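All the exercises in this workshop are built on plain-text protein records. Sequence and backbone structure share a record, each on its own labelled line. The structure tokens are whole numbers drawn from a learned vocabulary of backbone shapes. The record below serves as our worked example for the rest of this section.
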Amino acid sequence: MNDLYRKKPEECHYSFTQHRACEFFPCHKTDHPEDFNCLFCYCPLYTLGSHCGGNFVYLDSGVKDCSNCLVPHGRGSYSYVVKKFPELMELAKKNR
């Protein structure tokens, strides 16, 4: 069996990337820019609203403000986001 399948996602290169040349890097305030993950530049969990599990607020306008959220931007974020995919699939089914 391939060793790749024995590793946790966080041990593999595909689960973490940084784009330090990006004009917005890091796009959220962090004390640890070396651990900032750019893989989910636009959070796939945004559409889950209050079920995303992140640190967000709703503005008076109704817009979800994720400025203080680092959930999709940590070294372990890949596994968290992937575990939320069933919820995203259910949402997509409702919006066919």
Observations:
- The chain has a mean pLDDT of 92.
- The radius of gyration is 15 Å.
